[in-house]
Specification:
The chain is an alpha/beta fold. It has 12 helices and 9 strands. It folds into 2 domains: about 160 residues, Rossmann fold, CATH 3.40.50; about 90 residues, no CATH class. α2 links the parallel β2 and β3.
């Protein structure tokens, strides 16, 4: 009974959903119960993808009751705000890995370097030590920088985009970023006055030279009213909008690669 686990930032839920809609080999999807999954499960329902929501501590016993021939994926979505403190991000991701390794044959970490704190995750959780294959999103050369780097096709493409638009720096918005930017900036969570928090965010952005929003066209349509959400952000901050192309190539390649590794491991 091969078990693949996915630990992911909530912002990459659309890419995970897209992979699931293309993978007919999955027999069961188990989603770790936490406060980050409601939007994801709504999208799974809309795409008629079956799943079970299970508390993390109960997953080992649930797996023990399943058919040995079933191909199973366990998904653990982590909150967006972890990026605010890189050390906290690393701590939370590593803790999740430790909790899920005992029942996993392989694990794909849907993160990039994210402030260079996850660059050694494969080394820190190596197969020889933990009997579980751990992989993180990477292009042909190295681990991707972040979710945007993965979405635009890898580090080289991302760097080229940043160079091309260096005279007028831009925020890159995927559909999920467009719907989640308030949560990412903790506008409503940690500020008693959201208006004041927005003004502070705008001042910081202005000091950094940002003046535009780059809409990353991923081809995924699970987030509704993306254009309106980006326009709202641009209007609030006084930014212009332009569009760049994205794709799912890196997500698909990494997903299929670890599936092959898990299969070969069990042979």
């Amino acid at each position: 009974m091969p078990v693949m686990s996915i630990i992911s930032c909530k912002i990459l839920q659309d890419e995970i959903l897209w992979l699931f809609t293309k993978d007919s080999q999955i027999k069961r999807i188990l989603i770790v119960e936490n406060e980050n999954i409601s939007e994801f499960t709504e999208k799974l329902d809309e795409q008629h993808v079956s799943y079970d929501i299970i508390p993390l501590e109960k997953i080992p016993s649930i797996l023990g009751e399943m058919d040995e021939c079933e191909s199973i994926v366990v998904v653990n979505l982590l909150e967006l705000g972890l990026h605010a403190v890189p050390k906290t991000l690393k701590s939370e991701v590593y803790q999740s890995i430790r909790e899920m390794i005992p029942f996993s044959d392989g694990m794909l970490i849907f993160y990039g370097l994210c402030g260079n704190v996850l660059g050694k995750v494969e080394e820190d959780f190596c197969l020889e030590k933990d009997d579980c294959i751990v992989r993180i999103l990477r292009d042909d050369e190295r681990i991707v920088d972040d979710c945007i780097g993965a979405t635009v096709g890898g580090s080289a493409n991302y760097l080229e985009l940043l160079k091309t638009h260096s005279k007028e720096p831009a925020f890159f918005f995927t559909p999920m970023y467009a719907t989640s930017w308030r949560e990412i900036l903790n506008i409503d969570k940690f500020h008693s006055d959201p208006g004041e928090a927005l003004e502070m965010a705008k001042m910081i952005n202005d000091l950094a030279g940002y003046s535009r929003v780059a809409k990353v066209n991923t081809g995924l349509t699970y987030v509704k009213d993306v254009d309106e959400k980006i326009e709202e952000y641009a209007e609030l901050f006084g930014y212009s909008i332009f569009e760049v192309n994205g794709n799912q190539e890196i997500f698909e390649k990494c997903y299929l690669s670890i599936k092959d590794e898990i299969k070969n491991k069990s042979m």
